[in-house]
Automatic annotation (TrEMBL):
Record organism: bioreactor metagenome
Domain Thiamine-binding protein: 1-76
InterPro entries tied to this protein: MTH1187/YkoF-like (IPR029756), Thiamine_BP (IPR002767), UPF0045_domain (IPR051614)
Name under which the protein is recorded: Thiamine-binding protein domain-containing protein
Family listed: Belongs to the UPF0045 family.
NCBIfam families linked: MTH1187 family thiamine-binding protein
Listed GO CC annotations: cytosol
Length: 77
């Protein structure tokens, strides 16, 4: 399992998108198409590493005028 997680995190790092790795999830921000292109790539990684089944869960938070990780977490840091 860790090799799959590590490979997915490496793709996030390579993507050039702003990101934060958490204990139970990874958050990244970017343009809509860039984000979903990355999700598609990450979804395929477990299959490439020998997994037979993959379930991908993605939550999208989009706001008119923009939204950043920093704005969402400002009051909690």
């Amino acid at each position: 399992m860790y090799k799959v997680v590590d490979a997915c995190i490496e793709k996030v790092k390579e993507s050039g998108l702003k990101y934060e790795i958490g204990a139970m999830s990874t958050t990244f921000e970017g343009e809509f198409d860039e984000v979903f292109d990355l999700i598609k790539v990450m979804h395929k990684i477990p299959f490439q590493l020998g997994c037979e089944r993959v379930i991908t869960v993605a939550r999208v938070d989009e706001k008119a005028g923009g939204l950043t990780i920093e704005n969402k977490l400002r009051n909690h840091r």
